[in-house]
Write a structure and sequence with these properties.
Number of helices: 10
Strand content: 15-25%
CATH architecture of the largest domain: 3-Layer(aba) Sandwich
Shape: globular
Number of domains: 4
CATH topology of the largest domain: Rossmann fold
Distance between the termini: 37 Å
Helix content: 10-25%
Order of helices and strands: EEEEEEEEEHEEHEEHEHEEHEEEHHHHH
Number of strands: 19
Structural class: alpha/beta
Largest sheet: 6 strands, mixed
Amino acid sequence: MSIGIKVKRGLDLRLEGGVADTSAITAKPTRTVAVIPDDFPGLVPKMDVREGDRVASGQPLFHDKARPSIKVCSPASGLVKAVVRGERRKILRIEVEVDGSVSTTHDTTGVFADASKAKSLLLESGLWAMMNQRPYAIVPDTEAAIRDIFISGFDSAPLAVAPCELSDAGKEQMKAGIRLLGLLTKGKVYLSRRPCQLFPMLDGAETVTIEGPHPSGNTGTLIALTKPVNKGETVLCLDLPTLLRIGATALTGIVPMETTVALTGSEIKEPKMVSTLIGASIEALLDGEVKADGKHHRIISGNVLTGITTPADGYLHLPYTQVTVIPEGDDVDEFMGWASVSPSKMSVSRSFPSWFLGKRLFNPDARLLGGRRAMIMSGEYDKVMPMDILPEYLIKAILARDIDRMEQLGIYEVAPEDFALAEYADTSKLELQKIVREGLDYLRKELE
């Protein structure tokens, strides 16, 4: 069965630096990979290895302190180079020096027939930690009854790339992944796609064809427009690359740790697709790719809305599919500063000339362009959020730590990424994604 949805509220940012040829993929080997515990919200890491240990690809590096069955595994075989810690000995990252090709093989006997074996495979392979749940937008609870499963089949974020057609192997992996995930729920498996995407016939999944601007590719949008989450319910969320990894692991017993990354942004010489390992070194990925134009650069692991600012000696963050490089903007001397109405300045407001320039692409930098101020109740958020909630009132309830009001306004439906566009359009310059993340963590702490 297939459902058709047209998203009307949202916004596609017209940015320079998109990948023109998505079929050409360049290999980018990396000497070091890293796993970053902060990429797995809701998980408190407890180490399973030490510096100097040798690990195989797919071997657990750490597990969740409260739920030991949830494991995060090494993306490569080699030597544990460093366990980097911060304040109060918080684990910031685990670095592995790549020097081999030994992979952990998992037993896949009966995984397509037994729900407990299917869940055990996902936990042991580390794939469970690559998914998240609603409510709270955290690594899924192993004991929760999963109402439904939602899979985002495309990424609508700025400059992101979504494959229009899968290889024959990819189609088999998709079928296997859907079949395995279907055992984990008594409800349905929903898979979103663009009209141009050619997916195989999938038994056990309901295909949702979505048209419209970003955030049409977010799982939050898929959930909100098909079957919203109510209090007491838990749904599982994942993206297409994770689904394909699950299918490949179920078929072969080995987790594929390779990933295809889009190098995007106006400061990339030639935006392209590259193949590398999960958690690859940013230095290896960007070697020879960034323009030598004398500008200061902002390197983002991910897209410009939800990505994480990463130093040049940093590492690729989950979901491991995009790196964006834009000008930092701290070396710009602009006439009238933030108040400039230059036609080269991108804005969501119709008071700027850029609104009338049609399909022109823009080259924004990372400046805030304005100061933080009191919250303005203007309906700005509603224009870019297709979810049936009152986002401004929800943000106020989170700031007030009013749990009853938060629940009434739909906090169980949302994740920080759902507020990324609203944060971009916000006149008040509030850090909405941070506010939502803190609100979800507070709610979970108080109720659990």
